Amino acid sequence: MNPDALKPLATDLRTVPPRSPHETLGGYVIAARVVDKGRADLLGVLGEYNYHPCGLAAFLWQFTGVSPMEFRSFIATGADDDACGRWLSGKSKVSEQEEIVRWNNQMRCQLLCDLPDSYQTYYETYIPRYCPHPHRIRFFFDVYDDEEGRL
């Protein structure tokens, strides 16, 4: 790990939430958030968040075929966002831009009712407990944006 290079890039997730899952990195939604969480995890400032296992990031790992620990190892080098995005794109099993765009849009527009049953069951109690505006939540990413004050 290169803490001197990592520290200026990291967000202290004990005080500030990670980026929205809507934000892209390397062309992929969720990835910018994963980088924020990876840096915070490496520096011990992850707070209430998880790097791995993480339900949201599991969609990114499944789609790209990238291992969360392999990506964490790259993040640990102190690579900036652009380098992390290039690395992820280079390691991804998906190279067709149309397929990535389609997946991004599917993720952005994923309704709660279309999530796997285990997610629906989990969010049935999570949303009213942790989201200040549960009636505004329609899409999967809305859960994170509402809870973190962006919705």
Q: In total, how many beta strands? A: 2
Query: Would you list the SSEs in sequence order as H and E?
Result: HEEHHHHHHH
Write out the strand line-up for the largest beta sheet, numbering strands in chain order.
1-2
Beta-strand residue fraction: under 5%
Overall SS class: mainly alpha
Radius of gyration: 15 Å
Distance between the termini: 35 Å
Mean pLDDT value: 96
Total of DSSP H or I helical runs spanning 4+ residues: 8
Measured as a percent range, the helix fraction is 40-55%
| Uncertain segments | none
Shape: globular
Main sheet specs: 2 strands, antiparallel
Question: What's the quick description here?
Answer:
The protein is mainly alpha-helical and 151 residues long. 53% of the residues lie in helices and 3% in strands. The chain is built from 8 helices and 2 strands, in the order H-E-E-H-H-H-H-H-H-H.
Give the topology, please.
Layout: H1 3-6, E1 24-25, E2 28-29, H2 31-43, H3 55-64, H4 68-75, H5 81-91, H6 97-108, H7 117-130, H8 140-147
